[in-house]
Each structure stands twice: as structure tokens, then as C-alpha cells.
Amino acid sequence: MPSDQTLSHPAAMLQQARRIVVKVGSSLVTNEGRGLDEQAIGEWCRQLAALRAEGREVIMVSSGAVAEGMKRLGWQTRPRELNELQAAAAVGQMGLAQMYETKLRENGLASAQVLLTHADLADRERYLNGRSTLVTLLELGVLPVINENDTVVNDEIKFGDNDTLGALVANLVEADLLVILTDQKGLFSADPRKQADATLVAVGQAGDPALEAMAGGAGSAVGTGGMLTKILAAKRAAGSGASTVIAWGREPDALLRLVQGEVVGTVLVAPTQKLQARKQWMKDHLKLHGSVVVDAGAAAMLQQGGKSLLPIGMTEVQGEFRRGEVIAVRNPEGVEIARGLANYSSYEARQLCRKPSSQFEALLGYSAEPEMVHRDNMVLSR
Fold it and tell me: Residue 20, by phi and psi: left (phi above 0), alpha (psi -120 to 50) or beta?
């Protein structure tokens, strides 16, 4: 649980955030549907570049593809048919990616476009692949710009989808902070458009049921998200230890002021710290699908050195599992010393036992990760 001090003074948490996911709503990106807001996007990109210069890692999740597509196609009202929504997204995505690439490059940042669906994050193997790609991009100093792959989803393009996507990305990369930039100042105790005495909630705890009761419906005709989806996104992000900020997207230097410790908009503090959340997730919520036995040297490296598990240190593979499933790591006595996400299937792992990474391609026909279980995807059991 966050301390009373963190809830009343979250400055340290904001200042210490190293990996940040920023989600921007479509009404901001497209200036209420009038077309991509070049000035606003340029302003956010300037702030993102400043955060990157401070050594922080930043990912942008941007709405706006459907709204920009509607504008380019000359449509005045948001279509209801799925195929038309998908067509609008395909048209709009071209302009959206071009605008971000241009503005980030003007600020000295390389960018990458990443299109995801919820199915990508529900499948363990695709989840691992997505995480690996995003982390690699961050290590290379590239800023990923993420949107839902609206043209291929076989479900309705859902209410508040990119708020949820922002939270899922925060879970995926284990972000410290999710910042949701919107066309409202933050969460109010009641709808300020209807109740003059409504007050801004400056700080709260993510997942607090009282917050959901305060949140109203959608406020814009352009996008699909309302305040409730943002509150639920904060709850989801907190599952991996990420706190959430809901702030007005046109607030001057909002991102820069946040990381200096200033409370801008509404700050929803995660009830569990990132490391604790990960340990709980790995230990309590995932079924073990098999295990690998390691030699004494590898066991010591894992337990004392905080290293990844390399196949050269493995002596045996037990059970059947696929890439991305959770396995146990056992010492020579058979005692579980760690668990984590397997980078290789049990079939592949058996071929890699006692082998250096230089032989992986010859053995498997391809070469993926050098580790059987990366330390970022592992939790020690004792």
C-alpha cells in the first residue's frame, strides 16, 4: 500500500519515474476533429525530447487515427459500421505516423511506429515479442509511437480503447508512470459542467472504488473515451506498479512539471510498488508449465549475481512448455530457486542445454535471445 505521505505528497514518486508511457486522446491530437494539431503534437514532442535528454525512457500511445481519417475522407460524423471505422483508421494512420516522425525528428529523436491489438498482449508469445521489441527500441534511444491496429481488430473498436491500451503498454514494459493527456483538467468530484461546486481530485489511490463513482461518461464526440475509462486504466496500470496521472493536454509544460514533482491534474498512486507487483504476479497468478534444472554455477549466478539464465548452465528440461510460458528454475538438488518466462519451448530448450549462444542458429535454424529466461522476466523464489 502507498504510504499516507506518498498519497499526500507524491513528488518523489513523480521525480523518480524513469520509464513513462504518455497517452494522448484523439480530441487533443485532432483539435476536436478539425485535423491533426501540428502545434500541439510539436509541443508534446518537444517535452518528450526533454524527458529523453534527462535519461528517462518514454513511449507515446496516441489516439487520433480514426478522427484524422474521417477528416481526410470528408466525413462529418463518426461511422457506426466496423468496416468504415477500420477504413478511416487506415487512412488516418498515415498522417498520424508522418506527423509524429516529423516533429520528433525536429527535436532530435528517432521514432518507431508500433501497431498493437489486445490479442497481441493476450497471447504469451506475442506479449514477449512485443515487450522485447519495445525494450530494444528504448535501449536504442528510439521513441515508440503506439496505436491500436484498428484495421485488423475483429471486435468493435471499443469505448475508451486507447486508455486501456495505454495501461496495457504500461504493464507490458513495466513503466513507472502512465500519463493520460486529455481535454479535461483531471478527475473532479462531480461533473464540473453540471455542478459548479465540483472540485478537482489532486491525489488519490488507483483502484479506489470511490473514484469510479465520481467518473462520468464520455465528454467528446470525436474520441471514444470518458473519464471512467481513464480511472479503470489507472487501476489496470497499478497492477504492475505504475502510478497514473490524468491531466489537461494543453497545460503548459505538463510533462516537464510532473517529473519535477509538481502535481498537475489528478495523480493516482499505485497501491503496490513495481517490484512487489511483479513478484506477486509471477509467484501467485501464473501457472508453472515445466522447469529447467541448472548446475551449481548457474544457480549461484542467478541467486547472487542477479544474472539472466543462459542455456549453457542448464542440465535438464522437465515437462512440456511453449515460449512465453512460466517455468521454474531448479538447482541441482531439485529445489526451485526462481521462476520466469521461457524464451524457448521445451523442445528447443532440450537442444540448447549446455550449449553456448554461438551454436543456437546451427541447432535451431534461427537465433533469437541468448537467454533462456531474461532477468527482467524472472523472480527469485528464495
Answer: beta
Instruction: Measure the CA–CA gap between 134 and 90, rounded to whole angstroms.
Output: 22
262 lies in the same domain as 290:
no
Strands 177-182 and 203-205: unpaired
Q: Which of helix, strand or coil describes residue 112? A: strand
SS3 172: helix
Whole-number CA gyration radius for the chain: 22
In order along its 382 residues, the chain shows pLDDT tens digits of 565 556 767 999 999 999 999 999 888 998 887 889 999 999 999 999 999 999 999 999 998 888 889 989 999 998 889 899 899 999 999 999 999 999 999 999 999 999 998 778 777 778 888 998 999 999 999 999 999 888 877 664 453 468 989 999 999 999 999 999 998 899 998 877 788 888 999 999 999 988 988 885 444 444 444 788 899 999 999 988 999 999 999 999 999 999 999 999 999 999 987 766 666 666 654 568 899 999 999 999 999 988 999 999 999 999 999 998 889 999 999 999 999 889 999 999 999 999 999 999 999 999 889 999 998 888 888 6
Looking at the structure of the chain, the number of domains it has is 2
Domain at 307, CATH number:
2.30.130.10
Dig out the grid coordinates for 311 from the structure. Answer: 542455456
| Paired sense of beta strands 266-269 and 203-205, if any | parallel
Distance (Å) of CA 95 to CA 89, 109, 371: 10, 18, 39
Indicate the pTM of the whole model: 0.80
Boundary-marking domain end, from 233, 254, 274: 274
Question: Are residues 93 and 228 both part of a single domain?
Answer: yes
Amino acid, res. 35: G
SS3 370: coil
For residues 181 and 189, give the distance between their C-alpha atoms in angstroms, rounded to a whole number.
19
Are the C-beta atoms of residues 130 and 136 closer than 8 Å to each other? no
79, 150: one domain? yes
Please name the amino acid found at residue 116: L
Specify whether 206 is located in the same domain as 254. yes
Q: Max alpha carbon distance in the chain (Å)?
A: 70
Whether 162 and 225 have beta carbons less than 8 Å apart is answered as yes
Strand-pair partners of 317: 292
H/E stretch holding 128: helix 124-139
